């Protein structure tokens, strides 16, 4: 419009000047002044239109620049696969703005989050992670009445875990190396609206013993201590749990079948369990108190014609107490402590199990119950200075072959020591006790691959029930190469 007015302005001025010369004699001077005023107003209008056109062009250039910048930023984001993307138009949005918003929230993402392979929706309501680990062992024994030296695929586990509709966690885990029982390990759904109260349904670990609850992928030694024989592992059940004040207080309360993997209960009394854990200074800054946590657990149930606890060493070299038949009430108690000090970690616990033997004596009398008592303490120290996590993978400061985040090095190195003592008796003439000392190094090539080496001395109380009769001491070597993701 301004261009048209500009073109017409000279013609209009010429006409006005011609008219002025023709009618000078006829028009009064006041009319000439009015015509000049109109010409000035028209010129002002033309200038105003020119300014508006210039400002409009600047706005168009700004919008184009923002759209190009947004497109470039999207191209430079970390790699993620967009699947099933749909474009939703919004009123008042330019095509470039609509495309940018769609790229920011794709329908589905897939990729690697530095720890796991994942699939998740753009709005965060659905998520699945693919996790797993494999453990390849070698076990060497001193000559005697012990298993042969052997290689062993100890575990080969694969799991899917994540969330559905934001507030429902789930996990499905199987072990492909299990040839003796069911390969299913975990299968549960957890209602997780708030951290202070969560409800879990399915098959998972009974909440007792910090050593048992820690994942097999994060154990510091090749095998858990022999004290772990006194506590159950996984069982179908229902549990309420919560974390309060960012971990200052944790609790688990549940009821289970208590008879093992996928096993149904064989009586009308389920096994109940409660576990409490305190870390009063967890959110503080004190080096000596921040990593201190302690707690305990208790379970109670009944057994109908089951088997008692077994006395077996960590290396599985010898069973120093064969299980008895039990019947009646069973109780378990546990006390535990963890103290993390930067690269150092100290863990200890005490476990006790009482199992009754009702109506198993002559004429249906009740025999003394089977009582198992054990304690274990261990200490680890990261020689390369990494911080030891409570339950997680160690991330070396310098990986063996380096990566995108750190330079090449020798990985992370750790020294460890553990002492365990287990005594089992049935109140009559049958009783035995064993103790073990294990030590050695752990080598973390990176956060996913590690090598574990244990040297162990196993000692038995009864000189006749030992791998080498007459010699209470037995030497073993255990090693493991593990990959976990």
How does this model look, in words?
Helix 1 runs antiparallel to helix 2 and helix 2 runs parallel beside helix 3. The longest helix is centred in the first third of the chain and has 47 residues, at 29-75. This protein has 4 helices and 20 strands. It is elongated and about 140 Å long. Mean pLDDT is 86; it is low at 1-27, 72-93 and 98-103. The protein is 17% helix and 44% strand. The protein has helices at 2-22, 29-75, 95-104, 210-213; strands spanning 108-112, 117-121, 127-141, 150-164, 168-175, 184-194, 197-205, 234-244, 249-256, 271-278, 292-307, 311-312, 319-321, 325-341, 344-357, 367-382, 412-425, 431-444, 449-460, 473-484. The two termini are 67 Å apart. It folds into 2 domains: 2-75; 131-155 and 206-484, Beta Barrel (Porin), CATH 2.40.160.10. Strands 3-4-5-6-7-8-9-10-11-14-15-16-17-18-19-20 form a 16-stranded antiparallel β-barrel. It has a two-stranded antiparallel ribbon with strand order 12-13. A hairpin with a 2-residue loop joins strand 14 and strand 15. By secondary structure, the protein is of the alpha+beta class.
